[in-house]
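Task card 7
Instruction: Convert sequence to structure tokens.
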Amino acid sequence: MEEKTNTPKSGSMYQEPKKKVPMYLIALVITLSVVAILLGIKLFIDTRSHNENMQFVETEKQKLEIELNELIVEYDSLKTGNDSLSGQLTAEQDKIRQLLKTQASSATKIKMYERELETLRKVMRSYIVQIDSLNTRNQELTAENVMVRQELDKVSTDYSEVSRQKEALSSTVKIAQKLNAKNIIIEGLNKNSKETPKIKKIEKIRVCFTVRENNVAEAGNKTIYLQIIRPDDIVVSSPEAGTFNYEGESVVYSAKRDLEYENVDIDMCIYWDATEELVPGTYFIELYAEGYEIGSGTFVLK
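Output:
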């Protein structure tokens, strides 16, 4: 028998059987793909979160800087004359300026600076209370000072009034104590002490008078000054004459005499030696004691 050989038919190709992909490779590829997708999603989310965080930090930083600058202005507006408190205000302002120089790069630091800002606000409120208290006290002291000044002015006014009344009373007392002269007689005397109206014969001029009784006046030694005034208004003088004080001025007298006054009428005379030239006409005489004019009179020489 002839053996049959299986030979391929002409016109057909031989195809090897297809190999199947192992399942673990497929699972690996799928896993890697999922991981890559997840990583991409995470990167996207992280990037967006970072950008949002940076934007938040920048916004908050700007707000913080504005608030800090406003706080500096508020500190500047707190005026006080208290040196200690002014020093504390300056120190707090320096803290704020130092805080402004600090770089805030994260939300955590922003929160920390915000807490510091709130602390500074509380400190400022405390200073406001202290300054208000000081201002209130200053206003009270000012009001008290005004009252004290008013009281002092009133006391001063009262004192001035009392002084004025006392001065007026003193003046009244002095006037009441003033001596007075009555019964004034003026005579020109010749060398024989006889009365004469003739100028050429006059050696002396005699002025006699009575010092009145005055129970208010102080007793004791008194000086009576005599002025003899010529018709040409010249006060005649003598080597023994001088001046006395009258109403704050120094006044020339012609003659003077002391007496011991005992608050009763006392008669006395004052003499003036004719050592100066006399002229005809009407003469005036005035008597003074203790700064007051106590009497006057006239006489005529020919």
